[in-house]
Amino acid sequence: MGLYTIVAAGWEPDSPAKWHADKSYTISTDDTGRLAEMAKEEGVSGVFNAFDDFNTWQAQALCEQLGLRYYATSIIEEYRTGNFQGSASNDLQYPVNGKPVGSYASQGIAVCHSAKQ
User: Fold this and answer.
1) 16: which residues sit within 8 A by CB, 6+ positions away?
2) With CB atoms 3.0 to 4.6 Å apart as the test, which of 37, 58, 63, 64 could cross-link to 68 if both were Cys?
3) Is 51 within a domain?
4) Does residue 88 or residue 54 have the better pLDDT?
5) Is 0.90 surpassed by the pTM of this model?
6) Alpha helices, H only, the chain
């Protein structure tokens, strides 16, 4: 696919994700300043994170620092303003990953193939 993968995580220097990456760094995801420096040095052109609430906000902040589009930005803004239901749901391209607002991390995540789901 032509992807060069860089994994950054501040925990477990020998984590399995790092084994499969082309390159890895031990930088905490809460340090977006250091992540941005590394990303600029590496010429990073896209950011993806695991399904975790904290890292979603961090990835969005990192993309803003780098001037990159984050894949979930519009959905995050809808969520923050409370306007998600009835507005963005009609404009989504399905399938999407859905998650209950009241759950944490990956609890309750489901693949939705329609707005009704």
Assistant:
1) none
2) 63
3) yes
4) 54
5) no
6) 16-20, 32-42, 53-66, 73-81
